[in-house]
Amino acid sequence: MGPAGEQTLHAVPPAGGAGPRDTEPLLRLTWTDPVTGTHGYLVVHSLISGLATGGTRMRAGATMSEVEDLARGMAAKTAVFDLPVGGAKGGIDFDPKDPRAVGVLERFCQAMRPWLDDHWVTAEDLGVPQHLIDEVFARIGLGQSYHAAIRRSADPEQTLRRVRAGLDTPVPGGLLGDVIGGYGVAQACLAAAGSWGWPLPDTTVAVQGIGTMGGGAAWYLHEAGMRVVAVADAAGTLYRPEGLDIPALLDLRDSYGEVDRSRLPADVQQLPRAAVIAMQVDVLVPAAISYAITPDNSYDVAARVVVEAANNATTPEAEDMLSARGIPVIPDFVANAGAAAWAWWLLLGQVGTDPEDSFRRLRTEMRTKVAMLLDRWSTAWVPPRQTAWGLGVDRHTAQVGEAAVEDLIIP
To answer: What CATH number is given for 174-380 in this structure?
Structure first.
């Protein structure tokens, strides 16, 4: 199909009356890179006001079914947090450490331009940091990855300035746009501790993955007074039973979220990568890859609650097995939805550049939702995921396809 590469399009009409977990996606699209031959995927699960939101990830081995699951999760996130958009996701089957990766990402975005221009608001995800996708958008003439929403505003330049100012606001731990998702995950963990009356200094946490999301969660949990005893990156698990010095540890990361072992304190134990799943802790935060907890390793989980920071971190079968053992799972479309929710609050002018406004709103909404999920778990043994589907999903589903493109006003 020309220099942008080959595309295969599969449009599927949405089923009426079912929630995001039950419906077929609106669109599945497969792209073939003309240079490397790799495949990229776009799945639009649903459109509301002609828009869908969801990040773009890059990893070797990415599949259409994975991207479809992620798009379905995005539709659930937008429903739970009452955002006026549908859900989508992009994925590229390529190693982000390969020197050709930026070129692959740029060609993928160029090929997806009809959707990125009008309908799909994307952002960072696994293997694709926000600054990189914004650089690519600028090179192809779309300005910034929120372009499809920004172009609808009365003053796109002013809206773009507001978005960039919000993303680049310095806060403890980094830039607001980089840490807000991890902050939301931390608030989900803190809500769990609060629901069960756990004293924070005695509450232990293990975090699998310390990139943008996991690193942010670990930083804010440490700041709140929880004891983060283990973190894992691609090279292994780092463990200190008294608690790790998280700020110092994060300073040792490279651009891929891996810690320089040569500079570790002597009292930090180095364990195999898989050891983090089996840590005897109160809270396990899988923040690295999808499908990290499976039926094969779910019985190794010794935590009292699992808080999903990675998308689809737990397979459905593994989650059922954990629930049967009395271990609730706070689902990703609640726990890690903070970045997506905040981006739309920023786009819609509901929060500004004062970070405390953003932190306060996300803290309030996340803690309220997680407390509700765990109350249902504690009193009626209802899995948190089941309760979460009821938080606006049915009402949100009724909006799919009904609102005109012009109905969403971006100030």
So the answer is: 3.40.50.720
